[in-house]
């Protein structure tokens, strides 16, 4: 497959708010089940090991007109829960057998209970994750959460899942994470070769495809992109932060690049890079997944930073490692976690003299001109000062 | 009528006692630099007041400071200061008024500066904003922080694993930090003694809240209840003073019941009770009296509210238990109202509608507070469906005066009361 073909496939997946690929996967064999989940992270390995397809749901994007969803939310609540409800009410998730709402914020937390009220026949699980990072405290709690999740899925499928099954799934996801890391490293190294829109679309495809297929897609892209030389622009290098839940429209992602910024790291859909290292797959899988969560996972606003030193540490490391010249904070409007975190991160950056700007968006934002202008001015100032 | 034209508020002896208690706590806080007592900042829902007191620390509650500043109309400027300093207009205004208060010298209601906290007790029950709020304060104060994660009741129940997790954190993280900061050794018997006192006050608080089942109701279970819950939800649970306060309050209400009297509003006794309401959501603080007046002027009395349960669902049976001190603290943290899932919240309100024979259900949706607000529209529809009683929805904010539109709220309430009236007439003519 060539780049164009791969990207086109991903684009189609991204635009498809009926989740046709997941529907087809389910229909291909009787007894298959699909489990939807919301941002920011769930241990997909557990779902995969249960023989089910984990389906990442990040709202309706800018493709979907929200008609019913607004009747469920006040104007001052972000957009992703209302478009997710719209997906539910319009039957677009009727083939989904269960939904997992992970601990990220009060909005998605409450949405878990709303789902229970609205879709009483579906399996609904609120997944708490640890905010205590000791193996014997937070680790124990999280191992238990995962076991309960698995027990729920086993009850749904009537099929027992062994540790070996989960270990096998960990291996497939390890490969996925490795490929995604390679893709990110390649973009950071040669951002003109891997435009962020392409990287983003590839990431998004991972939310809706079986992981094995996603792995093939990533492999194919990585191969194809090496054999083609793409024009190099005089862009500055920036990191995007704050977009870990409700996703910006693709046009916004494009706009940042068109405004003269190479994105060299970001926190867009990060379920595939949440665990930052290879997860051991030869022992107790719950231990391995819990330990990876506690000690080697991504920082987001949804996690407690145990010490003041830890606040922004990963962001600063990313800026350094990726030789970024500045940071763009791009957060969804009304997103408490991201917007409460931003001043702390901004302060850490300022202390190191790292320039930053910030703006808010919503998943259906149509007006790109102001953002392009802001990013463009930022890029110009970075070039001027570097 | 403009708020500042409201008359001097009518106060009962229990209110005067409460005022003294709170003033005493502020005095203890602001004199901490001289007395050498340690200050522990923490949040209201699921707070560990007894534990904090076990280490002789003084409890400082930033939410209460925000409410205090809100009622004294100081938060508007504080919030704007915080926004100027880079905090988003979208986030919880309690946080911003706290940050703005710091920027303005952190002056307590007694006019003296608040001390820097010696520790932050980040027990987050029912709200994720708490976590970032105290990270922001830690960023400022660089002081020790103890984190207590309280799992959410996602499936509508408290499991033994949840209790174990909270207890383990108490034993291995929270208590050692408190010992280190305060220099006081943990004494579980002292905790037991306090929990005994907590349970006694809790019994009386429940009696007080349930007195609203009477007709006429002797209390307003929303506007009045924010005073009644004061001592127990803040720095006094587990103290003799709190026990005395609730005995006194109960006595006052018993008298009102005997005389067939209604609640005491800032303008005296509420004589007329045409509408009995159940209310969801916190009140607005910057126009608190004006807001309340819109109810009692129309003859509306609140007979039950969810906000008066943010610090514990005592009326559903929970009591602090000296026999199982740490487990009972854990259960307390886990069971606060906003740590209940949405089906539990709907069930609770439905029960209130029946138990308190309410005519309607009103939501005061707070712009700041996703923890309460996300899902409230669905809740309202569910309650309407289940009870057949009309619901109404108003939108305000806690302490940001920009989001309290008196005219809109008043219009909305007036048409709502008319709706209840019409519904009643319809029911009568159908009967
Ligand atoms: S966008 Fe932010 S506030 Fe909204 S659901 Fe996601 S994390 Fe929560
Ligand atoms: S979001 Fe709500 S519960 Fe949380 S701190 Fe703000 S007002 Fe309190």
Strand order of the main beta sheet of chain A, please?
2-1-3-4
Return Rg of chain A in Å.
20 Å
Total of DSSP H or I helical runs spanning 4+ residues of chain B = 18
Which residues of chain A sit in consecutive blocks of at least 5 with pLDDT less than 50? none
- Percentage of residues assigned to helices of chain B: 40-55%
Structural domain count of chain B: 1
**How many whole angstroms does the radius of gyration of chain B measure?**
21 Å
- SS-based structural class of chain A? alpha/beta
What CATH calls the topology of the domain at 9-164 in chain A is: Rossmann fold
What is the overall silhouette of chain A? Answer: globular
Overall residue-averaged pLDDT value of chain B: 96
| Proportion in helices of chain A | 40-55%
Cα distance, first to last residue of chain B?
A: 40 Å
Poorly predicted runs of 5 or more residues of chain B: none
